[in-house]
Known about the structure:
By secondary structure, the chain is mainly β. The chain has one helix at residues 2-15; strands at residues 19-30, 33-36, 39-42, 46-58, 63-76, 79-93, 99-110, 121-132, 137-146, 158-160, 163-171. It contains 1 helix and 11 strands, in the order αβββββββββββ.
Amino acid sequence: MKKFITIFSILLFTLSNYSQFGIKAAYASAKPKLTMAGGSISGAATSGFTFGITNLSEISDNLKWGIDLTYSSYSSDGSSTGSFDLPLYIQYYTSGEGLYLKGGAFYRSLTEDMDEGFKKGAFGLGLGIGYDFNDSFGAELGYDLQLSDQLKDVDGASYKLPVLRLGVKYLF
């Protein structure tokens, strides 16, 4: 219930400012990384897609902040994994229009039931660059760096899932 109230409050605040709603879709590539005391092991890269809704609010001529709700699905060797992401970010427009830099934080929740040793949710940072072709259509390239560990009660080891995305957005 607390999560719902927090999300609802953020959206209510967003609606009180100048804002645009939209949709986004992206190609995504994830490469799991298991780190242990002796080193790290990277799994095979899995590809997939991301789609969801977005809301951008103007802070100033060069600055906007946004919140998204996206679903991602990754598949490899016949098995698939899905997640819901809730990123909160700032977009800085380098020239006032068009090209922007993007950065913020996200919360990711896996949709599948995990083994007993895994946590379902994780926090991280997202970085990216994008370009708005006009007021409605844009493209962006982003990288999500998961900061929190998804292993439960395992000393000296961590599991993280960084994601690279290339996508488009359409604002109404």
